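Appendix C: a fully annotated inverse folding record. The material below is reproduced so that readers can follow the format used throughout the book. The structure is listed first as tokens, followed by the designed sequence.
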């Protein structure tokens, strides 16, 4: 199975991915990590697409793909479970500030504001809000969805 955790930076995707990986015994791939799978970007993309397609069709192989860029959503095969992970803009800024050791430069803040909501219009199997649910609850919902 392929579990795609899709959303802006600092919405909680990686935290959910770690919990989910423990639950479903999955490999976590983040963003452009797949580029290490081959020498060129086109080869790596092809290898990665095949790996994802194989995981959808193989009940013994689970992959969690953490997506923060819109163009990476297009890499997902039919049958992947797509989960939109959201948080309030203020929460994202707080988490980003913590990630940057208490400092949130104005250009970074403006970038966060510009990107906020960029995934909202997509087609997802599940939408979760990390301001309202904890990672354990979210993982339980994802596992329940994948059992259907």
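Designed amino acids, in order:
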């Amino acid at each position: 199975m392929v579990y795609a955790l899709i959303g802006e930076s600092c919405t909680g995707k990686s935290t959910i991915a770690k919990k989910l990986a423990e639950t479903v015994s999955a490999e976590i791939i983040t963003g452009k990590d797949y580029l290490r799978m081959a020498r060129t970007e086109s080869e790596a993309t092809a290898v990665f697409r095949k790996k994802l397609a194989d995981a959808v069709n193989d009940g013994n192989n689970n992959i969690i793909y953490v997506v923060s860029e819109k163009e990476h959503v297009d890499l997902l095969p039919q049958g992947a479970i797509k989960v939109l992970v959201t948080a309030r803009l203020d929460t994202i800024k707080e988490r980003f500030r913590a990630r940057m050791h208490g400092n949130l430069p104005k250009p970074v803040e403006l970038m966060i504001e510009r990107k906020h909501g960029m995934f909202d219009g997509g087609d997802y199997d599940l939408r979760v809000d990390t301001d309202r649910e904890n990672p354990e609850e979210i993982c339980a919902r994802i596992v329940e969805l994948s059992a259907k």
